[in-house]
Design brief:
Helices cover 47% and strands 13% of the residues. With 227 residues, the chain is of the alpha/beta class. A six-stranded parallel sheet has the order 2-1-3-4-5-6, sandwiched between helices. Helix 7 crosses helix 9.
Amino acid sequence: MVTSPDAPDVRVLIVDDQHMIRAGFAALLDAQEGIDVVGTAEDGAGIADIVETTQPDVVLMDIRMPEVNGLEATRTVLGMPGDPPRMLMLTTFDADEYVFAALRAGASGFLLKDATPEELVHAVRVVAQGEALLSPRITRTLIADYAERPPSPAQNMALLAGLTERELDVMRLISRGLPNADIAANLFLAEQTVKTHVSRILSKLQLRDRTQIVVTAYESGLVRPGE
């Protein structure tokens, strides 16, 4: 992803209970052009005050911390007034029971702590641009979890009653992991038209980003694993 030289730096806050993780991630990200680490914290306690003081664009949030965990902290941050930062969750587990709850709470993505430096930098930039990001392993876990559940009741489709057939088509393709360009090719639409459909889906369903679109598609029964 190319960053415009005129674009403001992406402001990042790192919250993790392990000092070496905080220090290592901070050093790595601070060395990148266009990224500025504005603060670190070892726990989710007092996260609202920390966010208010540092004004980050992206928060790297450890999902498992001993006092206030990342899920509680994420709910607090995303419940703040105004335009809250994007939340990128960090975990050492690709099968983490908090993953699904954090996605529903509005997290923009997940990254495993053993990700490469390039993957970490890419994740921060992607999330800062308003996109959603999931580690491939976490995505597989998410899909496997839904595959083990009984079929969703038909009434769950009522969640999607306000969407047009074309918006449902777009939602299905988003759930397969396709970017806008590929969705446009599949549906013989202009890419800008696809972007408009995505915006309308987010607005009608009151969702935050594409990650929540995927979760809603599975929960509603619109998409089944393997389809």
